[in-house]
Design a protein that fits this description.
DNA-binding; mainly alpha; homodimer; 76% helix
DNA sequence: GTCTATAGTAAGATAGAC
DNA sequence: GTCTATCTTACTATAGAC
């Protein structure tokens, strides 16, 4: 086999084209043509377009989430028996995603993130499988922010994810490639913003 | 005419279906069927599917942006000759969007916002036309946050937009409709988060 | 302005030879 | 495992009668 595994070639080009055009507009024909494999190979190796998307996500985002849990566990262990600092916890979530920006072309990861914002009918199932266990672990924030209601913590967690995603997902691939995306600086900015956000006074009514 | 204008009927159902399924997956056939008008009526009134999308956006998001500018001008006038407070400026941006959540079904607005995250090829042009003038006006933040570099202000503005969009755009219509979306509370939470975020210390190197 | 009918295109999926 | 060829379906858009 002189060239990479067919399966890997499909994944590589599917990832690129999904990221660039979104799920619907990236046709299997375009993907297989770019990968220089046969159209039918997709169905042989993955079964369907949807399963191909899932494989793309699993390959790229799965490791990010594993790293998040690894870092979170480390932060908890190092601080024990006390609680880890808010910043360490937030960083354990944000840094793995930003670290990936070094290895993969940034706009690829950004484009994949955008797909998670597309029609939920396709992505909701993957989203839950990918992120469910991770988000579960971040309940550790509850005792770290004891003055906030669980609902407000959840809301702020959502704000953080939105800030992270949108900071990396503007409108249009051209803009995407031309942006200032020094990952370390972007992470510094983002961490400062969300850490302050989490430390803001509670706004929910205090429970009776 | 016993029922609303054909044009309006198309807009109503296009809005709903675009919001629910995204641009690509909402077919003109489904839209015209729901609106109980003929398929060809879309092309007669709007010319193309893309122009229909633009009309939908203009009708719903245009007024939000006008209200933003109106409130921003008011805040500036009331504070003159001093600068308006950070909070007033941020609120002038966030509140009009949240106010709309009272009038329209929340998930509709959220679904439209999601389309702005879809493939830029279609939406970038509309995005610039819709938001360009507004974002321009918020340069007022530069003197309000003198310790931040212009780039960092831009980054934080982006974080704010991301937090706003994502807080209202989770994954999947089912979840969308069942969420806790009391607009006023959501606004309070969001404002507290982003105001604190803007007030965080600068992270960019001080300019030489 | 509204309709029917259809042109023209592109998509995902599959059967079956090799 | 890989290929060609094709099935089936769905879409946007338009022509032309009323």
């Amino acid at each position: 086999m002189p060239r990479p595994d067919t399966r890997e070639r499909i994944l590589d080009h599917a990832e690129r084209l999904f990221a660039e055009h979104g799920y619907d507009r990236a046709s299997l024909r375009a993907i297989t043509e770019a990968a220089e494999v046969n159209l039918a190979a997709v169905h042989y190796h993955f079964g369907s377009k949807e399963h191909l998307l899932e494989a793309v996500f699993q390959r790229r985002i799965g490791p990010i989430n594993e790293e998040r849990i690894r870092r979170l566990d480390l932060a908890i262990a190092e601080a024990a028996p006390a609680l880890p600092s808010l910043r360490r916890v937030l960083e354990s979530f944000l840094r793995p995603a930003v670290e990936q920006l070094r290895r993969v072309d940034a706009w690829i990861l950004m484009g994949l993130a955008r797909i998670l914002h597309e029609d939920g009918a396709i992505t909701t199932r993957h989203f839950d499988r990918l992120f469910g266990p991770v988000i579960e672990r971040y309940r550790i924030l509850l005792p770290i922010c004891p003055e906030l209601s669980p609902e407000e913590i959840q809301a702020r967690f959502r704000f953080m994810i939105g800030a992270m995603l949108h900071s990396t997902v503007p409108s249009g691939p051209e803009e995407l490639r031309s942006r200032d995306t020094d990952p370390e600086r972007q992470l510094r900015r983002l961490l400062a913003f969300v850490e302050a956000g989490f430390e803001a006074p509670a706004t929910d009514e205090v429970k009776a």
